[in-house]
Amino acid sequence: MYQRILLAVDGSRSSDLALSQAITVAKATGSEVKVLYVADDNDIFFTAGSYDPHKLMEGILAAGRDALAAAATRLADAGIPHSTLILEKPVSPGQISTTIVEQADRWNADLIVIGTHGRRGFRRLVMGSVSEGVVHKSNKPVLMVRSEIEE
């Protein structure tokens, strides 16, 4: 069964739900969990106005550190062996799914757990879906945890 679970988080409600499922699976199988946050400033194309790219990236990294700390606390409280990793750059801009799959392969994960956002419309067409990309690019089992639709 599963011994190494890679959990991709982004601080959203769906990644919180994915964390809950990873905890359930890890408890049942005695697995270790590695929590991954991929910092990507690609969302800047969907915000209006001027910005300071350094401040933007620092905000993204701070959100990543917060998401990892919250996940680590819940995993520790559940008694699950775990580690965390923040990657400041994806394999290439906008390629979060490829980065997640690469990390799962590098760490020899048995299962990838990821939340889905249920995005619709223009933003989904432009960005694609990270979770769907992981499913298509990985040869490992992927547990996709669906959240409510985000507009």
UniProtKB/TrEMBL annotation:
Record bears the keyword Cytoplasm: yes
GO cellular component: cytoplasm
Matching Gene3D superfamilies: HUPs
InterPro entries: Rossmann-like_a/b/a_fold, Universal_stress_UspA, UspA
UniProt signal peptide: none
SUPFAM superfamilies: Adenine nucleotide alpha hydrolases-like (SSF52402)
Places the protein is found: Cytoplasm
Keyword Cytoplasm: yes
Principal location class: cytoplasm
Pfam families: Usp (PF00582)
Entry keyword set: Cytoplasm
Record-annotated UspA domain positions: 1-146
Family designation: Belongs to the universal stress protein A family.
Protein name: Universal stress protein
